Each structure stands twice: as C-alpha cells, then as structure tokens.
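U., I forgot to send this yesterday:
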Amino acid sequence: MNFTKTDLQRDVHYKTSRSGGKGGQNVNKVSSKVELLFSVNDSILFNTDEKQLLLTRLQSRLSKEGFIQIICDEERSQYLNKEIALEKLMEILVRALHVPKKRKVTKPSKSSINARLDNKRRSALKKINRIKRDFHD
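Result:
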C-alpha cells in the first residue's frame, strides 16, 4: 500500500448533484451530493499485478465501464462529502490489496498434547462418577 490520498486524488473523478435530506432550502440550491468514480485500469498508482488483484477482488463493485462508484451525501458540505468518499475508496482499495500471511504448519507441543489428554481424562472421570449405582445386591 504505497499510495496516499493525494496520489489517489489524481486518478479520481467527481460528479456532483443536489442532495435530498437535511439542509433546508439549501438542499435545493447547492450540489452537495458527491459521486466518486475511480477506474482501476486507467490508474497509474498500481502495477499490472495489483490491478489484476483489484479487478478480481472488486468484481462485484465495478460498473460495466470498469469504474468503482462511491456515492456520498452524508454531510451538507460538498468538500466533506468528497473527503468521506475518498476515505471509503482508500479503505476499499487497502482491504482488496491486503494479502494475508501464509500459515506455517506446526505440530502441537508435547505439553499441549498432554494437557489436552489430561483434560479429557478428567472430564471422563467426572462422567463416570455421575453414573447411578445400585448398592443393593
């Protein structure tokens, strides 16, 4: 993840429109709703391997034209909505590029094996002691 918000801002396109919701009469005059569009293929931030990884992992989020679309109309300010949309995009890209570490296969230690067997023995004895015995011969 060797990119910052400012790097990402160069590859992002915004569309603005009037938003519903809170804001009173201001809603009818100001375009505060922000639609962020990001094309993975046209981006200069990622190499071909990273682009391929993003395209496969974000396949459900991509439009027909190959854009990631994020719509934000949470705030009254267009600037704040742009910031929120950019944060969401950063989060999506970072999560998609994350490659989990490979698990190293290990054997359980002798002490852990002995502890597990000891625990099994104890619970077995508990259950054996619960059995009702007939003391009348």
